[in-house]
Prior knowledge:
Order of helices and strands: HEHEHEHHHEHHHHHHHH
Shape: globular
Number of strands: 4
Strand content: 5-15%
CATH architecture: 3-Layer(aba) Sandwich
Structural class: alpha/beta
CATH class: Alpha Beta
Amino acid sequence: xxxxxxxxxxxxxxxxxxxxxxxxxxxxxxxxxxxxxxxxxxxxxxxxxxxxxxxxxxxxxxxxxxxxxxxxxxxxxxxxxxxxxxxxxxxxxxxxxxxxxxxxxxxxxxxxxxxxxxxxxxxxxxxxxxxxxxxxxxxxxxxxxxxxxxxxxxxxxxxxxxxxxxxxxxxxxxxxxxxxxxxxxxxxxxxxxxxxxxxxxxxxxxxxxxxxxxxxxxxxxxxxxxxxxxxxxxxxxxxxxxxxxxxxxxxxxxxxxx
Length: 258
């Protein structure tokens, strides 16, 4: 991949979209992961106003510190970048208290609720400042296994890196000088207090998922692990189609409208 040219292309695309929308810039949630780090850097390269928002909710110190260090690096490098830290822990705690017990005890439902609280915060800040909410999902997450929260981190105005695989995200991140500790960190969605990685949750690494996403060969010659990865990929791709396809609309026949 032509990393420099690709970074420039995405940055110019972002700038043109923002100009056409008549808005001032972008707001991005910073998790301490590589996807948000790359997205925010590409937004910064547009020269438009960029607001980085750290939104910890009982975050692990490693995730919080990586986010903090990335924000410090980007605000130092770009005069058009500013930041906010909005601790949503008390908001999340209140939501827990208000929800029924069976919901509070459903760990995945509560993890997804964290992402939806962050989305609400991003849109509030974005609307007040005339900024677009920039998505941070990559191609494997958004169109392969659906590894994101519907109306959480999936609730965005535009998706600048959604046509890049995770491997390409790493490549371009090196090109635009994302800090090394983020490049080296295991990918995580930042929704769990134990800091579990994406691979822990999915059961396969991003390179493996990229392979499965493109595989069209003879399955009879695959290794046991490759067969397992294909099974994981196809299962997640199937059950998460509701995230990847347009919201179904019940179209009423004309005969019933007359």
